[in-house]
Specification:
Blueprint (H helix, E strand, L loop, with lengths): L7 H4 L2 H8 L9 E2 L5 E2 L1 E10 L5 H9 L4 H11 L2 E9 L5 H8 L16 E11 L1
Antiparallel strand pairs: 1-2, 3-4, 3-5
Length: 131
Amino acid sequence: MFARSLSAKSLGSAALLAATIAPVAASAQVVEGARGSFQPSYHLVQLSVASAGMSAEAFEARTREIASCADAINVARDIDAEITRNRHVPQERLPGAVQELLRDLPTGQASPVFSNDGETMRVLVICNKAN
């Protein structure tokens, strides 16, 4: 792997991520956490590409160009990546490792490349973060 990669163990399966964030698309933007503090919610874009069709280094290089959600969509189209949009995803509904990853990720920047099975590489981009 390479420096920006995240292990499957640290992020859990991409299927878990998709299953976790897909049903909450209609949830409120701000969710009150168990301790009474407000947790952010995210508008996310996920780019997924088959490992067989592109090297990890090339995918990482292309996703490093991303500085906005519009860039993410354009890069995805250029490299024929699958685009998944998830709006209003409460932080508490995300797996712990994904919460950590997104906590310090600047809006518009792509996350490190991750893969749970070696067959599909993915990145997440925060389009909006509501507190």
